[in-house]
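Moderator note: this is an archived Q&A kept for reference. The question asked for a predicted structure of one protein chain; the sequence and the answer are reproduced below.
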Amino acid sequence: MAGGGANIVASNRRKNLAGPSGWAGLLANARIFAIAVFASLGGLLYGYNQGVFSGVLGMHSFDSRMASAVNDPNTKGWLVSILELGAWLGVLFTGYLADKLSRKYTIVLAVIVFCIGVIVQTTAFAPSSIFGGRFITGLGVGSLSMAVPLYNAELAPPEVRGSLVALQQLAITFGIMVSFWIDYGTNYIGGTGETQSEAAWRVALALQLVPAIILGVGILFMPFSPRWLVNNARDDEALQVLSRARRLPPNSDLVQIEFLEIKAQYLFEKETSAIKFPHLQDGSRMSNFKLGLYDYLSLLKSRPLLYRVLVGSLTMFFQQWTGVNAILYYAPSIFQDLGLVGTTNSLLATGVVGIVMFLATIPAVIWVDKVGRKPVLVSGAFIMAACHIIVAILTGLYHDSWQSHRAAGWVACAFVWIFAMAFGYSWGPCAWILVAEIWPLSVRGKGVSIAASSNWMNNFIVGQVTPSMLAHIGFGTFVFFGAFSFMGALFIWFFVPETKGLTLEEMDEIFGSAGMAAGEHERFLAIEKQIGLDAYNDPDRTSPNLTDVKHDSIEKV
């Protein structure tokens, strides 16, 4: 589909009126910042669940209870990766639910599903319950991984949107860090050996319920996405949400331009749908289902949208094949392979991974809207590739003699920590920023679900194959992930456009829709004129009260 960006002068005027980017912009948009921080509890749940299981796998009481699943590398891989398989399915369902129920209520539903899965895991007495519980938890986690960045992106002003969406990754890394240290602490319940209590792993798993319940209840008091409200003909509510979020009156130029740009984009795509599928405009459930299906198909049939599918899906592909989740899921085992003796020492080293990754994510939240996406992603990928290669060389040289080469072992551990820092500031936050911001309004929910599903499917594959790779090819595992990290840098460098500072509606310009057919261009200009957006073409205009004019025009449309 073609899209917005036709009214360049109005867009430029909005940019001139917008506030600062980065940290100063976050302080200037304190209300949105607070809402985004709260919504990002979904990321904390994902991170905690991702990190906690790596420590649980090494606990003596868990290994004793679930020995039939833990002792076999293939079954162990499934025990870890079954969550990602559930998350993949959860993301696909969320594309429809986010458009139908709203982003907000989709988050509530995802929390309910998540809690059911956690309860099943916490009360498990056999591997089958862990498998089932992690699959159900994955459905909720996958849904949250898509709905939360989407919700944040649609509430955020363009000048700080990247920083706010990056809060999702900051929340994930915070959850990982907390889970690693909770594992380290609960590992001592009853002792670290034969006497260890099963509470060591049950408590660690059950604690996920606390932030989940807070998120599920609290999100009910948060605003709806203004873009979702416009998409559902609730214009007055959308204008009020934008006004409160920007802390400006509804008739201010900045609020009016942003609202009318969203409205113009929605009306254009609705009109385009009516032209293409006139027989499906009766509003019936079946017609709406078919329109949704055609929206998915349009992602493949339209060249600009297919370009976005490839950018989103391949960015997530390369994010996972950096090997980050191989490190996170199996960090205690990896550190033991690097010469750290004992479960307690490996858990301690794993805890450092959580700390450095969390701290490295903070600069991304502050500066990603100043530096841009591409420099951050490319530099992070090159650093991660170098870390993998160095660890591979050290492991190849000393894997049979770590005890007599302690310094080399610690150097290898240090480069695993540097790897975690590189991921924390780059591919962690920026991959999710891209996925959340590149889609037009009419297919945004479905587009994000397709791209995010790539993340989870590749996450599932990585979790499944890593134990076998470590067992059979040893240091070659790090060479493998290093090569993919390098290829990820080249992909971003040559094929991904910079999206810093653009509105969600202006993305059409850089993804190939700027040269739309003359008829479509004229239709878009007519819609802009009809709703009053052309009134902002004069960059020197004052800010009269145009609220009544705009609402009258919108109602006529």
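Archived answer notes: The two ends are 20 Å apart (CA to CA).
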